[in-house]
Amino acid sequence: MAGQIEAKLAELGVTLPSPNPPAANYVPAVLSGSYLYVSGQLPIDANGLTLKGTLGAGVSIEDAQEAAKLCAINILAQARAVLGDLDRVVRVVKLVGFVASTADFGDQPKVVNGASDFMVAALGDKGRHARSAVGVAALPFGAAVEVEAIIEIA
């Protein structure tokens, strides 16, 4: 039987994928005490990386918001893989979103809202979090967005 969070995800039409393996010498998530630290997740689905490019140079805010949402979905997939049950989530403490951007692009917060809005939709008040939205010159594999998380767990 699925827990409350997985039931809410189903209601939202979201099926969590199998978690993506790490692309280098790191682990996808580390459980330490009451906190789960989830490594940066890219917008990867069953077909691979969904959005490459740079905001301010051809990538739309709307497409990047969807990519950030997919990053958040992948964060929850990694969390479920470690925790076994997403109902152990007490709160998403912090998200950090990285947005591949030109020097004059300043709407990184709008992009990362794709991840933030999804966390609140999926988890309610447990999904409300502190956040950073950072513009960077480039991301792994040419991705437009990457999001990492710190999650308090029971």
UniProtKB/TrEMBL annotation:
InterPro entries referenced in this protein's UniProt entry, alphabetically: Endoribo_LPSP/chorism_mut-like, RutC-like_sf, YjgF/YER057c/UK114
Pfam families, A to Z: Ribonuc_L-PSP
Gene3D superfamilies, A to Z: RutC-like (3.30.1330.40)
Record-annotated membrane-spanning stretches: none
PANTHER family listed in its UniProt record: ENDORIBONUCLEASE L-PSP_CHORISMATE MUTASE-LIKE DOMAIN-CONTAINING PROTEIN, ENDORIBONUCLEASE-RELATED
Protein name, per record: Enamine deaminase RidA (YjgF/YER057c/UK114 family)
Species assigned in the record: Methylopila capsulata
Lineage: Bacteria, Pseudomonadati, Pseudomonadota, Alphaproteobacteria, Hyphomicrobiales
